[in-house]
Amino acid sequence: MSQADLSLGGHSTSAVIEPPFSIPTKKLAMWLFIIADTMTFAACLVAYGFLRHGTADWPRPFHSITNVALMTFILLTSSLTMLIGLRSAKAGDKATAFRWTMITATLGIVFALLHIREWFGLIDEGMTMFKNPWGTGLFGASFFSITGLHLTHVVSGVIALLVVGVRYKSGRFNADDIEVVSLYWHFVDLVWMFVVPLVYLLNLSQ
Amino acid sequence: MTTVEGQKSGIGKDLVVYVCLLALAGIQFVIAYQNIDIGQKFTRMLSVACIEAGLAVLFFMHLWSEKRAFLIFVVVFVISVLLGMQYGWTDSTRMLVGAPFSK
Predict the structure, then answer these.
(1) What mean pLDDT, rounded, does chain A reach?
(2) Does the pLDDT at position A3 exceed 50?
(3) Relative to the CA of A96, which of A107, A127, B52, B79 has its CA 20 to 30 Å away?
(4) Backbone phi, then psi, for B41, in 5-degree steps?
């Protein structure tokens, strides 16, 4: 029996304890984490907007959109591959679900490598956390903080995908676990939709 | 409808949402090269990003399929806190024009 079975005063009573909103506990926990993490990213982006709006010599160092466009395409595509993996898992097709989960993780790794390559490019141009050749040093601090926080989430997501995927294949995890990790992965994608316009596109050199 | 058919139709819907998201992301890149002031760019890009986020949350994260009470809880809670974070913009403008902060 999956629900609590209470015995009170010698009488056996079956008590059905419904989880809040009738959502499985693990999934609800992930949703609550996502809501909390939304606030973290929102606070970072609002603080960034505050600084950008209030600083006259804000740098615009990005010359090309090729790299960020490619990164966006990869991350959006990884959300689609995650969905295919989830649908396969729900349909009981373990091999396909595992394959698409691993494809998603691979796309995440490619995204992270492109991101790191971009960071090194900016560092080569003289940008650090506290100074850069183009204007206020606040730019480096906010850029590395926001993109670094996002990159940390991507790396954590890749690790989670690999662990859950392998355990799902071995039978220790089920489709619900794939769903929970997919929620997290879509959230990482969702955050990127705000990071791109605010941090990259508004800072394109014209 | 069999499981396989259901899965295929579901993937069809996912593909439509995916193409919409790609198109919206493309629109953001077009806005970036428009000859308009930074405030207008910001407003337009943020509006597109909000639409993208809405599509992703409702269909990729399947919030649309959850109970309505949960959907309302998430939307109302998140929007309230996000709106609450906007209180500092007036001070940001003060920084820009060099006006003293109120005592």
Answers:
(1) 90
(2) no
(3) B52
(4) -60, -45
Structure-block tokens of residue B42: 């910001």
Q: What is the total residue count of chain B?
A: 103
With CB atoms and an 8 Å threshold, state whether B74 touches A31. Answer: yes
Where residue A118 sits, what CATH number does that domain have? 1.20.120.80
Q: From the centroid of its chain, how far is CA A21?
A: 24
Domain count, chain A: 1
All structural domains of chain B with their residue ranges = 1-65, 66-103
**Gap between the Cα atoms of A32 and B42, Å rounded:** 29
Residue type, B48: V
Q: How many residues does chain A have?
A: 206
- Evaluate whether residue A12 is within a structural domain: no
What residues are paired with A14 via a beta bridge?
Answer: A5
Residues of A with Cβ-Cβ distance to B100 under 8 angstroms: none
pLDDT digits (tens, 9 = 90+) for A56-76: 888 998 988 999 999 999 999
Tell me how far CA of residue A28 lies from CA of A21, A124, A179, A200, in angstroms: 9, 44, 11, 33
Per DSSP, the residues of B6-50 read HHHHHHHHHHHHHHHHHHHHHHHHHHHTSSS-HHHHHHHHHHHHH
Provide the pLDDT confidence category of residue A49 given band limits of 50, 70 and 90: confident
CB contact under 8 A, B61 and A187: yes
Structure letter (DSSP) for residue A199: I
**Domain presence at residue A134:** yes
Residues in chain B closer than 8 A to A65 (CB atoms):
29, 32
Compute the 3-state secondary structure of chain B and give helix, strand, coil in percent, each to the nearest 5. Answer: 85, 0, 15
CA triple A178-A91-B71, angle to 5 deg = 55
Residue A7: the pLDDT is 47
| A54–B94 CB contact, under 8 Å | yes
